[in-house]
Amino acid sequence: MNYKRCVSIAAVLLLSACSQTSFSTIEYYQFSQPIVNMQRLAENTQAQLRINTVQLRGALNNRGIAMVLENNRVNAANYHLWSESPDLMLTASAHQQLYTELDNWMVIKGLPVITDLDQQSYYELEY
Fold first, then answer.
1. Structural domain tally of the chain?
2. Domain that holds residue 48
């Protein structure tokens, strides 16, 4: 009876050890920047600057953070991800930074708001 009890305990311990798997938790990252109030009247601006969406190619626009390995290989992480696609984060970051730095410019993302009077003072940034 003692032998059966030892075998039973060993079997339970073995099964419980096999059932415990360690899963890595997924971590999400975002660019760290202060959020500023972005409200400006068109009458108080000299010019308009439209920011096009940043174009990233290949593995750089992957939500998994890219790591460069030896021999110029790129690997995307599985458990360390950007909170949104890098091209959108870079566009939003550029928009906020330019809006903050250019006090008398109307910095916009997306479609421009251009009237006939604004044609001479309209600029577009693409990178």
1. 1
2. 2-125
